[in-house]
Amino acid sequence: MYFLWYLLIGLVAGWIANLIVKGGGSGLLINLIVGLIGGLLGGWLVSLFGWVPTGTFGTLIASVIGAVVLLWIVSLITRHSRTTTTR
Description:
Blueprint: H1 2-21, H2 28-48, H3 55-85
Helix pairs in contact: 1-2, 1-3, 2-3
């Protein structure tokens, strides 16, 4: 049952992060993947600052932070590859 809950939190976190970074949705599957990977990344990042996310709200906040960072890193990589291929 917890697996479904983590999928739902990952989906919501990916959607929120996508709205923050791009301003639009990328689709259900992409949002889910970004949210799940962002949850892992966010949990690791916030633990570096001494905060251990607990509960649904804490997990969601950590997942959104991680997903935003993940989307930011991906946009830096894709922006760099676009500029090198156009010249």
